[in-house]
TrEMBL record:
Belongs to the UPF0235 family. It holds the Pfam family DUF167. Signal peptide: none annotated. This is UPF0235 protein BPP43_06830. HAMAP family: UPF0235.
Amino acid sequence: MVLDLQYQKFRKIVIMNIEVKVTASAKSNSFKKENGIYYIRISAKAIDGKANKAIIDFLSSELNLKKKDVEILKGEKSSKKLISLNIDEDKLESYFSK
């Protein structure tokens, strides 16, 4: 009896939850890390969820992720947010070493 085994490669899924301090209504968008703390400056105003949507759009674009791979878990109405990213830690850290 011959067994025909098929293997499928699945994309490695890595979920990172990071705490972020957000400044809305900034002059420009930026994402940085200082002393182990993540900061996002976003130009959108914090009205009707516009800043939250802009954060997702900005992070997905900057980190080359799909929008579904960026999610605000906590702090939708706060400047301190918990954000979930489907990204490998090395890839995230390489973003800051540019």
